Amino acid sequence: MGDSVACADILKFKVLAKCSRSRARVAELRIPHAVLQTPIFMPVGTKGTMKGLTPKQLERCGCRMMLSNSYHLAETPGMEVLQKAGDLHNFMKWNNGLLTDSGGFQMVSLAKLTKLDEDGVEFQSPYTGAKMTVTPEYSMQVQNTIGADIMMQLDDVVKTTGEDDRMKDAMYRTIRWLDRCIAAHKRTDHQILFPIVQGGLNFEYRTICAEEMVKRNMQGYAIGGLSGGEPKDQFWPIVKHTAHLLPYNKPRYLMGVGFTLDLIVSVALGCDMFDCVFPTRTARFGIALVPTGQLNLKHSKFKNDFRKIDDECDCQTCQNHTRSYIHHFVTQHAVFASLITIHNVTHHMKLMAKVRESILKDRFPEFVDGYINSQVKRSSTPKWVIDALASVNINIKDHKSTAAASAAVVDDVVDDVATDVVDFGGGGDVVCDGEKCAADGNLTTANCGDSDRK
Ligand SMILES: [Zn+2]
């Protein structure tokens, strides 16, 4: 491929500020439908909207870029309807940033995979039962019809915990499929194609893959195949290694990452864009995200709690409703999910805004230290967090000793979570044990791996 330009130059990325210690940076990202600042979190709206939220409500949460799943859109409303509407932006009246996945992973996770070879992925549709083959060309055709600002290449996704040989094959196949996607992309003057660096937990494979993709001179790069259940002490070195191989002056998108600590660490390691179903899916289980952790609003202690979910939040839910009110119909009425979704999406938008602000003021290390202190209660600061941050010159304290002092303040969080059955989609139900998750090195409740996106 040499240095050929694969796409018209319709993405502009300008680094505005860089943390003087870590690799965190703030940049302006210009894409056809939006001017954004990174680091950015993109909520996932499976079928062209967040479950339970209108596009306008999503905009009011401060969201200017969202992700949609090609596969679901291809099934419903279908390509014909989207063509008639013009594109998905028009169809959903969303004049903001949109990113679509290739459809490959969705199919593999949701459907019965029947065959995977050089041509593409063959699977059985869970909607119709019919066999379908998704090739790089078909994925581009679908994504060109949807018309999102950023499209993802079809990649060969393997579990990071899988066999090494399979990982290597998948990495090389992903490079070959990228070339087919580049050749099949018909709207280079309107849509940007991101490649996905694969290679599992193998540094050498990640290096080969990143170098090959950088040769294609793409406008941005994604790091894929992570957050699929690999240990955190293997996750962060791969993120750091891979991000560093990618060009400084282009956006780096870490796929499937959305737990708050993971976001903050990955920003420190040099990543700019993130997506995850976590804030929206967890809302549907009655769990609200707050600066000190999480509130399980199903818990009976909220029956007489007339405070807002979060005193400092000005989202529509917090402006109008109390914990008690939401507890009153939590899990019994779809409205509760919308109310918590509004709050959780706003929470993630504000978190990223605070991250950006701290980088702009060159106070990111102080922000990280303060944030982790506010989240830690009984468990000590996870070792992987300390190690990952130390590797980029952010030395945070182990907050275990100070955690007891703040326990009174955060009495209503985290410990309520107990054991919940959390449907993470794709992989079926998993039992999430909040304490066990904390022991694994994470402060999130539903920290069971997000099998919906990788
Ligand atoms: Zn709120």
UniProtKB/TrEMBL annotation:
Gene Ontology annotations for the cellular component aspect, listed alphabetically: cytoplasm
Segments forming a coiled coil: none
Enzyme nomenclature, EC number: 2.4.2.64
Database matches in Pfam families: TGT
Enzyme class of the recorded protein, top EC level: transferase
Record localization: Cytoplasm
tRNA-guanine(15) transglycosylase-like domain segment(s): 22-374
Sequence positions that bind substrate: D101, S102, G103, G104, F105, D155, Q198, G225
Cofactor(s) annotated in UniProt: Zn(2+)
Reactions catalysed, as given in the entry: guanosine(34) in tRNA + queuine = queuosine(34) in tRNA + guanine
UniProt function note: Catalytic subunit of the queuine tRNA-ribosyltransferase (TGT) that catalyzes the base-exchange of a guanine (G) residue with queuine (Q) at position 34 (anticodon wobble position) in tRNAs with GU(N) anticodons (tRNA-Asp, -Asn, -His and -Tyr), resulting in the hypermodified nucleoside queuosine (7-(((4,5-cis-dihydroxy-2-cyclopenten-1-yl)amino)methyl)-7-deazaguanosine). Catalysis occurs through a double-displacement mechanism. The nucleophile active site attacks the C1' of nucleotide 34 to detach the guanine base from the RNA, forming a covalent enzyme-RNA intermediate.
Protein known as: Queuine tRNA-ribosyltransferase catalytic subunit 1
Originating organism: Helobdella robusta (Californian leech)
